Amino acid sequence: MSYTNFVNKEDIIYEEDLVSEEDNTEIYITKNITVKTIIHSLTPLEYPPTSEEGTALIYHVEGWQNIEMAFEDVQYSMGLPCGQNKTTCTYLGDIAVIKKDRTCHGVNICEFAVPELREMEHKLVDPNSDLRLRMSKELSTDNVNYNTFAIKENVDLNLLQQLLNGLYEGETDEPVNNCYLVFSNSTKRIYCPHPHRSENTITQGKLMKKLCEVRFSKLIPVDIKSCPFVILISKGIHTHPPPPPNQVPVTILTRLQELIHQANNDNSDVTPTHIITGNLIKTYFGVEYLSDIHASLNNTDLLRYYFDKIQKEIHPQGQGLLGVVYNYSRNINNFRDYVNRLEFFEDEHVIIFCTTSEQLNEWIKCKHFQIDLSFKRVMGEINEFEINYYSNEHNLILTFARVFTNRATTIAYQRIFHVLFDLVLQLMGLPPQFKHIHGSGWNCIIADLDYAQAKGLGLALNEIDNTKDWEEHLVHIFRSCLVHYKRKIWEKDYNDIVKNKMVALLTAESESAINQVFDDIQAIEEDAADWITFYRQKWVIASLNKSMSKIANDVWITSPDNTNVAESAHALSNLRGRDLKLLTAILHGQKLDKERFTTIYVHQKYNIPNKGCDKGLISRNVMSNKRNAKKLTKVVPTKCKQNEHTGSNKKTKTNIIEIEEYDKENICTISSIKIKTRNGTEGDDKESEFTLKFSELEFQERALALRERELILREKEAKIREMELSLAEKEHVLNSTK
């Protein structure tokens, strides 16, 4: 593959091929500029050919987005002495052009450069025979061989150190190694990166400039539309090696910038590594690697430079808290449609509230929801607090609000809930409703048993209804996760008797029974005093045990007893990335929430669900029962003996399965399974076992379905009763007005 745009015979047209001219005929480009050779090209050349008499390179630029790339793609460094004036181009039909003159600045080479480089001249860069194309080969042999030393045995290390430091004053016959490195004139290097031997000293050679007197002239028509041609004239012979192709051509650079923008749109936390390892390079350029696009991109620092430059343009204040404030203040890409509020407090508490009216509208419709704090998604001290809910109608986990906070104290949570409730009033036009306060609305909030979080919620509810203290509010609405409770118990160093007593608190049927369990734990384990003090608080034990809670029985039964939905929501968010910058985490959350609610809209409009399989409460319970049944009905491996009284080689299996059953709350439970064999043959009849298991599961599924239907009917009856009361009240008002 060709890395640069060299002059190839099939790509250019010489003027002498078009018209019949004598060899010594001079061609006038302007009144004062003549050339002997004219080349027509449709694409920019990085190494334009030159000659003593002058060579003109004519580009047909019609359709080009940037005509300057005819000159900017040139790899030669050009600059002073220079000039610019307006003149007339005779060759293009006496049209007005702007002429810009530049001088080639040559290259930089090492002071230990090989003589061939010092004396080199060139008019045309040939990729197949030029010295520059074998520099890498020479460099890999000479420089490595002469500059790499293997320390052998019995070497005088002191003498070696003197040699390396240039302190040895003896004589040496070692030759001075030659260098083949060539740098462009724009390099910032001062020394050659490879060490060289000079007499008794090993040193880095200084870079020296190899000057050049080739003159370049650019001719650009004043009216480029009527004459879509530009001319590049070069006169003289380059007295230096060709510079390396360090400059990225404009066309490639433009496509590369488009690629970076696209990568940023796909993933706002994109890095140069993501681009290199992703598929965008092949999509945009049709190759696998950057170095296959152009030789200059073999230096990945160029990609990082352009990447950082574009990121600075997109996010001038970065992607941290300042970037969030910048996007919020200027409402970039309707940022405030999702980020509704930024709150800053004197104690350096920062809160960022992310939600939409669509999300809040779904929030106020549900009866219960889960809250939890995630610690993994955002880089630094800021964490993400989420409000989540599982929609049985859409088989989907929904996030109603995301709150980014750098504090997790009681006051911090009180502020968070206060602003969330205020946002509901602001965007929905109605304050949030709580069943224990207003008679309808949210009836249960499930969370981990975090003291600061729970108290902050209770204090926020106390602001709405100060007739109850914060603990009493929690008794009416708060429920904690049993999974976390049990996990913390089994992580303790208490003995199994104490742990079983702690678990028994969940099923104790009265306050006296609960107190008895606490007393038993205290009597057995004296070190559990702090634990007992905490869990004896009324709101704490009420969040775990129904007999102490003031949540309605039907609500307690139908609401979850764990925060699995919240944990699953965190996992879904973490799939989009962890340890993200703050602005990136917000944008990822916005995209995920938009995706979820778009799915709901499509489901409601076209009746196409997000998933074909049912993941509702009944389905999950049935699957759980199936897993438990597999644990209960383990297959007992037995060896089968052939019957001595039969000549047949077939092994017959005859199993008798005795099942003891009892019926508790219409749920069938297998208490024991015994397997016996007849006729001296042992085995297991899998078909019989599966039949029993499926019979049990079908019974449980029917019981759960009937239970759910009963709850739905009761809910509909309550709504009808509410409508009847409303109509009766309206009739009473009408009659009173008459």
Query: Could you list the spans in which at least 5 consecutive residues all have pLDDT below 50?
Result: 6-11, 14-22, 136-148, 635-683
Give the overall silhouette. elongated
Taking strands numbered 1, 2, ... along the chain, how are they ordered across the largest sheet?
Answer: 1-4-5-13-12-7-6
Q: Structural class, judged by helices and strands?
A: alpha+beta
Share in helix: 40-55%
Number of strands: 22
What percentage of amino acids are in beta strands? 15-25%
Number of helices: 26
Radius of gyration: 41 Å
Distance between the termini: 95 Å
Sheet with most strands: 7 strands, mixed
Give the overall average pLDDT: 82
Protein name: MULE transposase domain-containing protein
